[in-house]
User: Which sequence fits this backbone?
């Protein structure tokens, strides 16, 4: 009994005196060259808490000693895929709540509560209830907060859409130009076909089919290239910002849209180019 | 003669020439936009930082100005040390905070800067008077519209709100003396300015002798980066940010846009190049007989090559000139999208027109037009005369 009590006392003492643990993110680990097991001193502010102790001297300032805590790095964690953190370059330390409250002098306060509801719970009613009895805080749906905090990405998304439209216009002109050239290159073949008695409609249809095939082939190559570029973009930016966030996603919808648009543009270009030629008399096409 | 022949060749196939010029115009517009995006953002930011002549900013160690709630303590002591450097001409400590103004039974919140009006570099006065008195406050138009007040009105201003008791703290009556425009403020940001000592008094001991930011103007001819190094050596509790380091940090944060500009610019240039090459190659193939005849009657190979290259250059130059107008229009539209970034100072432009950027885009396109004409020109110049004439005669 005595030994048990002594053991418990020693365990308690050990727990009280041994440094507590923290987790740091990959960026901090890489920048400060830290690894699991390293011992660190944490301060809530640079230099002294009370800067009245700072003294001006010919060699500059000598900051006083701020309240500090010695901790051990227990884990290096990868950040979640949070778009709002991308490009900010912040370094992150995860601590125990009471540890941070003590270090920062925050007392028994928190910035926010996250609440998980049971499946099927009526979130709207719950929000009304919390806000009805709340004293000094307000509850929001995570979805609403996400909308508010993702304004930056809505702007980027609009910008991407605008760039996409410009790219589509440029591609359309390019495709139309190539199809016109391709069809015009065959003016003698078309003249010969017409002189042999092949109808205008058949000539136009054959050119449309050809244009469609070229468009589909180009789309397939484009999708493969786009997929490869997407992989590169994700690899590059995930390494640059140290985040698992997917920057570029190739979805079946996007592939379908791209192929359909290309097919439509190609076929339209084929129609326009072929109509010009079949309306010209065959002998004129032959230069007679 | 060269230009007449090139023109005749292009006019002969109007539809394809128009399409090619249009294609080059769109590619040129995109290229111009991307050159503007890559250089404009940095230039716009540099102009903004230099607009009031302050070369260095001091923020709490490890932060950017107003990026966090952290403050720099011992303002007086730091100011004394800064004054020992003869290269430092002017020092402007700034304290930032939130404010609540009660107007028409409503609570309107915004941000406030505590400044010294004689050395401040954060805003310009639009009308009224600066905050020369301890009880004076100047606000921007956004806040003015919200509080529906006029110059001369007395406002009830608080610096804190306790959610536990739903009461205001640091409350004080201030007289609205001026309308100002904050240089670094966002379009939809409600901001105000008061004297720093007024804000300190309102916020109490928590911010006594503290500043969120120091703005420093160096002596003419002095090197701001040397002064910055000196500050970081002698005042280790601050991060000193010169214009060059600030631009480097912005570059790092917005590197995505520069990379996007580079990639899309390169793609546009390549598309323009491909279009001109294809068009001129097809044109040369179609006119192989004509070229062979010209060679047969004694026209030199150089002359043929020059004519074909001129065709490519004409398409590129006309397309580029059209693209210039188109590019400026699309840049304006794209800039209006990106200016909606939350917290972006309204003076920042992502797409800034600079004549140098336009000349660069035009130069690149003309160079690509010349390059695009080289292959078809070489083919045209090296056509075997007799064989080509025979083939054409049979055809």
Assistant:
């Amino acid at each position: 009994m005595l030994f048990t009590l002594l053991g418990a006392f020693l365990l308690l003492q050990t727990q009280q005196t041994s440094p507590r643990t923290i987790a740091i993110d990959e960026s901090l680990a890489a920048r400060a060259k830290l690894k699991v097991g390293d011992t660190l001193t944490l301060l809530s502010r640079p230099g002294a808490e009370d800067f009245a102790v700072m003294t001006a001297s010919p060699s500059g300032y000598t900051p006083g000693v701020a309240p500090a805590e010695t901790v051990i790095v227990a884990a290096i964690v990868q950040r979640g895929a949070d778009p709002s953190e991308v490009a900010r370059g912040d370094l992150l330390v995860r601590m125990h709540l009471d540890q941070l409250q003590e270090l920062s002098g925050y007392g028994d306060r928190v910035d926010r509560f996250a609440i998980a509801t049971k499946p099927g719970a009526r979130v709207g009613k719950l929000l009304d209830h919390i806000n009805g009895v709340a004293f000094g805080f307000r509850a929001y749906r995570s979805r609403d907060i996400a909308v508010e905090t993702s304004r930056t990405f809505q702007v980027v998304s609009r910008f991407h859409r605008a760039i996409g439209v410009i790219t589509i216009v440029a591609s359309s002109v390019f495709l139309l130009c190539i199809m016109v050239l391709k069809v015009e290159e065959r003016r003698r073949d078309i003249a010969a076909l017409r002189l042999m008695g092949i109808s205008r409609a058949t000539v136009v249809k054959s050119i449309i089919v050809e244009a469609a095939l070229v468009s589909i082939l180009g789309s397939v190559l484009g999708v493969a290239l786009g997929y490869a570029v997407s992989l590169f973009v994700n690899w590059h930016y995930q390494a640059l910002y140290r985040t698992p966030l997917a920057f570029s996603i190739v979805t079946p919808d996007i592939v379908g849209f791209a192929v359909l648009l290309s097919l439509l543009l190609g076929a339209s270009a084929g129609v326009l180019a072929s109509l010009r030629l079949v309306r010209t008399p065959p002998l004129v096409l032959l230069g007679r | 003669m060269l230009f007449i022949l090139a023109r005749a060749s292009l006019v002969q196939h109007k539809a394809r020439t128009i399409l090619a010029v249009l294609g080059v115009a769109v590619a040129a517009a995109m290229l111009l936009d991307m050159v503007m995006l890559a250089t404009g953002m940095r230039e716009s930011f540099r102009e903004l930082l230099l607009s009031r002549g302050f070369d260095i900013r001091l923020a709490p160690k490890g932060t950017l100005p107003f990026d966090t709630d952290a403050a720099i303590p011992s303002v007086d002591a730091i100011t004394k040390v800064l004054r020992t450097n003869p290269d430092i001409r002017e020092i402007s400590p700034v304290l930032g905070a939130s404010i609540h103004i009660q107007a028409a039974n409503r609570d309107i919140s915004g941000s406030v800067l505590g400044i010294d009006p004689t050395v401040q570099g954060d805003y310009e006065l639009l009308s009224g008077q600066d905050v020369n008195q301890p009880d004076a406050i100047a606000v921007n138009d956004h806040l003015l519209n919200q509080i529906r007040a006029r110059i001369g009105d007395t406002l009830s201003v608080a610096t804190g709100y306790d959610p536990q008791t739903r009461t205001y703290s640091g409350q004080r009556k201030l007289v609205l003396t001026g309308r100002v425009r904050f240089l670094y403020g966002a379009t939809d940001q409600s901001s105000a300015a008061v004297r720093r000592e007024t804000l300190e008094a309102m916020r109490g001991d928590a911010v006594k002798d503290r500043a969120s930011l120091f703005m420093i103007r160096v002596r003419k001819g002095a090197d701001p980066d040397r002064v910055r190094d000196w500050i970081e050596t002698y005042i280790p509790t601050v991060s000193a940010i010169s214009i060059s380091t600030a631009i480097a940090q912005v570059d790092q944060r917005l590197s995505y846009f520069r990379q996007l500009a580079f990639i899309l610019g390169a793609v546009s240039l390549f598309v323009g190049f491909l279009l001109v090459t294809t068009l001129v190659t097809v044109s040369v193939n179609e006119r192989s007989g004509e070229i062979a005849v010209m060679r047969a009657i004694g026209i030199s190979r150089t002359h043929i090559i020059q004519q074909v290259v001129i065709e490519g250059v004409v398409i590129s130059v006309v397309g580029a000139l059209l693209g210039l107008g188109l590019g400026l229009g699309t840049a304006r539209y794209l800039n209006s999208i990106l200016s909606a970034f939350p917290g972006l100072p309204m003076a920042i432009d992502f797409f800034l027109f600079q004549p140098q950027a336009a000349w660069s885009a035009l130069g690149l396109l003309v160079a690509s037009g010349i390059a695009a004409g080289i292959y078809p020109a070489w083919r045209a110049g090296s056509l075997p005369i007799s064989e080509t004439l025979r083939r054409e005669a049979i055809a």
